[in-house]
Structure formats: C-alpha cells, structure tokens
Amino acid sequence: MSRSLKPDLKVWRQAATIVLAAGWKSPGAAASSVQSAEDFRLLLLQRSKSQGFLPGAHVFPGGALDASDRSADWLQLFAPHHLPPRFGLGPAPAQRSAVPELPNSQPTSLPEVADGDAAALPDDVALRICAIREAFEEAGALLLRPRGVRRISESQDSAPDLDCSLEPPPDVSIWRTRVSGDARHFLDLCAQLDCTPNIWALHDWSGWLTPFVAEKRHRFDTSFYLCCLREQPPIQPDLTEVVDCQWLSPSEATKSFLSKEIWLAPPQFYEIRRLENFASLSNLHKFCLEHASERTERWRPVTCVTADGMIQLYPGDELYLEDSHLLEKVLSTEKKTEEIMKEAKKLHRLVQHSRHHYSIHVTIPSKGKHIYPKSYVVNKSHL
To answer: What's the rounded Cα separation, in Å, for the pair 178 and 183?
Structure first.
C-alpha cells in the first residue's frame, strides 16, 4: 500500500513500472508446443478483478510513488560509495518536457516526505526505488545489491554483466506483509539485509501519461524502466493485488493476448511489440547500456473514438494534437476506423478494434536513438 504523494484526482500521480526481462533456455521442442524467436521472457502479473485500475489485466510490476521512496534515510544506506546528486547512475540524461497541468488542478510543489524534510532523492532515484519496492510487494522479487559491492564496470571500462535477484530471506512473507501495509518498511528490510535497491540495474525505457477516458479516474505519470536479469527470479503473487503471473516472450505475449488468454492495456501491448525488435537478451541489454544517456520520451496519448472502435494517437501522428483542451476530452468522429486509416499517411497510433484485437501503425522514424515497434496488423480471419 502506497501513500501517494499526489492523491488528488486532478493532479498527475507519479508512478513507476519495471519491465523484467530474464534469460530463458528452451526446454526443447518436446517440452513446449510454442516456438519463440526470443531468448528472454517478460514477467507479466495478472491484476485482481477487484482492483479499481485495470482489473484483470496482465501488467508489468509497478505502482504509485510513495513518500518514503524519497526519504532522506536512504542516504545513509547508499553511502559511502553512492552519494548525491547521481548516486552512481552516471551522467544525467537531458531533461524531459514538463508534465502538462490538468485543468482546475492545484499548483504542484515539491512533495514532502513523512518526516517533514524536503524530498531528499531526485526523481530518477526515487522512482527506481518505487519500482523495485513494488516488484517486491506484488511479486516477491528482491532486486537488491549488497552494500559496498561494486560492479567491475564502476572501476573499469568493461560493460556490466546481467543482473540477478537476491535470494529471499526465510521471513520474506512477513516482510511483504509489512511493506504492503506501510512502504516505509522497505527501507527497514534493506537495512536488515545490508543491501540497497539495485537502482543501477534499471534502465530508462519510456514514460506514459494516462490518457483521458472517463471522469473521476486517476491519471498517472508513469516512468517505465527495463531490467535485464540473467535468469528468472522466484515469483510469488501477493494474491491481493496480483492473483497470477506468467513469464512470456514478446511474441508469446502477443499470441496469448490475441487468443484471449490474457488482456493487455495499450501501453503494455505497445511496449511488448517494441521489445519484439530484440531477438536476444544480450542485444537488449547492450541497447540499454549504449543509450543510457539518451532522454526517454514521455507520451500523452490522445484518444480518438470512431464509429466502430477507438484509436490511441501518439506524438508524431498527423492527427495528434498537443492541445491542452484534450487533457480531459477525447476526439470523436462518425467515420469508421477503416476510413480514418485510409486518409492518413503519417502514422503513429494503436487501433483498438475490440478488446483483444489491436493493431499498431508506425510510418515515422523514432526520435533520438530509441526504437519504435514495427507496424503490426492482424487479419480478422486469424482471430
């Protein structure tokens, strides 16, 4: 349970998501009927149907930023090797554009942590701690690193190896209950294990602002981080927020979505399709390391409701508008989706034909050195 820094519905709530990509060795054709081109799997957690946000969806671990994720008490745990302002994360990437303020929202100010001190940790550190804490709460994964242990790359020029999770302590279930009840206990757990959250294993990947769909829904400013693990850590859903889990390759996740075995929200589907550009975990890890200083994009999708479906428009699409009036409105048209698609040439959009039928259309180059998913269209006869 998190004590959100910005609980007001009229204010963006900061959140963090961690995409766990773990190495996978094929058990052989006899043991698996599904053939996959990728040598890694992604952790997808199924949310309880009783949850108010994305009930029943398969998502990456994550949640809202808690005040304790910024606490000054973390400074002592990171010392003496990793100190402000960057805590060993390397050069700061270029600043992203400011988040647009929602209509009638209160002016935003620097949040304060529970003990009254001004937030001690910068966003890119606090949000990484948030993502790691949520992975522990929801899935039982301990993405920690013993204090005082440095990677070879921190003192030499060689690239770091793939990371691994920490072996859970015998009383892990007790700690998960404590942390779920009060996020401040995550710092206590790290102190007892003499570890720090392995923020250095989390690579900036993307940023998503919740699009407007309906009134009285929380809007999140979510930072997506990618973490490449040598092997799959033991996972145990908390059976409260999360009721099940699966390790699936990007291509397997797409097939499971189309066959209605799982349901994915548009951002998860987009990111999974983006990750299908990488056939190997080593190539994915190398890509993250080579682009560590790049500024990640933060997107605010614009929803366009057609006569027979819905389109999520992303920056660069010829119909995309930065208009502030669309922060709490949707575009609508009496035209059918097919007609809208035929009229456009400059595309960056996800079309929601039905609950389990999405298509992605990308005809623009990616910004910077990041990578966009390839266009993906499924013939209705194959559904």
So the answer is: 8
